[in-house]
Design brief:
This protein is mostly beta strands and 657 residues long. It has three domains: 6-259, Immunoglobulin-like (Sandwich), CATH 2.60.40; 273-441, Roll (C8orf32 fold); 448-655, Jelly Rolls, CATH 2.60.120.1130. 14% of the residues lie in helices and 40% in strands. The strands form eight sheets. An eight-stranded mixed β-sheet has the order 6-5-9-3-2-11-14-13, with no helix packed on it. Strand 24 (448-458) and strand 25 form a beta hairpin. Helix 5 runs antiparallel to helix 7 (350-363). It is globular and about 100 Å long. 32% of the residues are buried.
Length: 657
Amino acid sequence: MIRLFFLTLFCFITSNIYAQNFNYGAVQNDEYYFDKNKIDSNANAVVLKEFGTAAMQIDDATGRLVIQFEHHVKIKIYNKEGFRFANIVIPTYKDDNKQEFVNDLKASTFNMVNGEFVETLMDKKAVFTENRNRYTQLTKFTLPNIKDGSVIEYSYRIESPLIFNFRTWEFQGDIPKVSSEFVANIPGNYNYNVSLRGYQKLSDSKAEIYKECLRLNGVSIDCSRMTYIMKNIPAFIEEDYMTASSNFKSAMYFELSDVQLTNGSKQSYTKTWNDVDYELTSDKNFGSQMKKASVFKDLMPAILKGETDNLGKANAVYNYIKKQIKWNNYYGNYSMENTKTILENRSGNVADINLALISALSAAGLEVEAVILSTRENGMPNKLFPVLSSFNYVVAKVNIGDKSYLLDATEPLLPFGLLPIRCINDQGRVINLKKPSYWIDLKASQKSVTTYVLTGKLNGDGKINGVITTTSIGYAAFNKRKDIKKYNSSEEFVEKLDERLTKISLSNPEINNIDSVDKPLVEKYEIEFSAHDATDKNQLFLNPFFINRITKNPFNLNDRMYPVDLGAASDERIIINVTLPEKYELVEKPKDMAISLPTSGGRYLLQSSIEDNKLAVNQILQFNKAIYNADDYLYLKEFYSKIIQNQKNDVLLKKAN
């Protein structure tokens, strides 16, 4: 479990200030020749030193409080695989009212030439900016003259008007760090909740008083100077099946609790859920949008088309919104436009669409609520404090009888009641217009299920002809439908599929229920492939794992401290039946297997046999849980290793004498 602790500011010991930045450009021999074996023998690059500091100041131009954040890093690069760590990206926030600015950027590369360090300064023209999305701007640059053994160094300052979160400091990154130090200078009238998340512990921390650090409205303010140090930090390695790395990387987070104003009054920022409920339900871009049932009043007879039961009505409304409003690929908790304009424009962000869905469901006489959540890539929502900034998405929750259904109308190919995997992330907060809010688990309502059935016949020319039928349900069907829709037609999809399957020929395709998303997606193809070459027609080689063969283990760490999150349980079955023209005997085959994960977590079954001139191969791969604890990691790793090893083997058949 992630360790979480809070430090109450303003209860400090007074001591000498010991936090100090290191001098720029002063590369030492022991840094250039640093032995990576001391921290990680596999490292391609290592952070030798990292220092950051953040402090509040008055912006001379605007007279407003801003945070000045300074970041200084020195990195040793060992080989070409480490060159990519000389490509630096600095994200900053921007919107119509607030923007962060990067200033005082400098960067250098140091190489040893004839026994002396030679510095190559980065040209300022090498720096460029890129708009990542509506709210994020990226400042990018690449250090010059990178070679095996180079030491790079860069520093910059960010001026930020975003005071609520002060400045997050990530101790852990993509490469190991020898030392990382952060100093937060916080005015004494600002009270922050401070938390260290992740699995690595601080090596040291100190709290000090820094006298008269700031002057507000003519009043001198003392600051708390908080120093946090972490040493010998392992690299954070991202693997498959994990949510946002920010959930697990060791980092220091700040959230503003309250401010003691210079006039003696107090302004609170840490709210109760009652405060947040009122704020959301009264907001014109949230609660007011939930109340726009009148917009759909005249449309409802046509939408419902005689539906009488509530589940049918909910389905009809859900399908109507999916068809009427196209998602513009922006997330958000708040609507950008009013519901009438959204319907006219037929486009909107997540909140535009799903708040309109809530209004329409309400107009149909159904009991409906909103659920705010944080997507998987955004990290876990903060459940200790009601912080709205930790949520970035909203969906609908419709209650019918004793069942509830979570709905997201941004994805036309999703069936009723199934959320996109991006939304399956811990818990969401249910917002009701009349009742207090509450937490709800976000779980996949369906498994990801795929069944392959191949029925074929071996011909005298050594080729197997037959029919393969694939049935997909749940997320498997959703993902396959999305894949098909990328192409101009299903015929084009089949053409590309046939090109990818170099040893198998497809013909006479039949794909059913592409747009009937509440039904299984069924694909049917006639196939042809060779079972032996012309050298020895008495022998047949067949690899029965040509369908979704597992060639790579997604779990390669010696240990993993965070959960394996698949998003949903899954079930894959492969059934192969090939009729042989005469009697064959089974000489070699993959070993029959029946292996399981602990506590009924999953299983893999494989059986192959010949009976009555028929070759039968059956496989089942099941994962019965959506989330596996860190303790299950090594079992999963071994589980995959055994499957991969066994799937390397072919079936060898010989004509019986």
